[in-house]
Specification:
Elements (H helix, E strand, L loop, with lengths): L1 H19 L3 H35 L2
Helix pairs in contact: 1-2
Length: 60
């Protein structure tokens, strides 16, 4: 959870700095990249959770 929040904070800071510098295209790409990284982390965590629940209920 803290890792995802940290990525969001860092992405927001980079976005603000790039936008003030006039690099709006790079600022947008920063947000898109952060979203993809967070999405992949959430998918990985959801997969791990599913496997743990399956192991508990199927007694493997």
């Amino acid at each position: 959870m803290f890792q995802i929040a940290g990525i969001g904070v860092i992405a927001a800071i980079i976005h603000a700095v790039l936008k003030k510098a006039g690099q709006e295209e790079f600022a947008t790409w920063t947000i898109i990249t952060a979203f993809i990284i967070v999405f992949l982390q959430v998918i990985t965590k959801a997969g791990d959770l599913f496997n743990k629940v399956r192991d508990v209920f199927l007694f493997h």
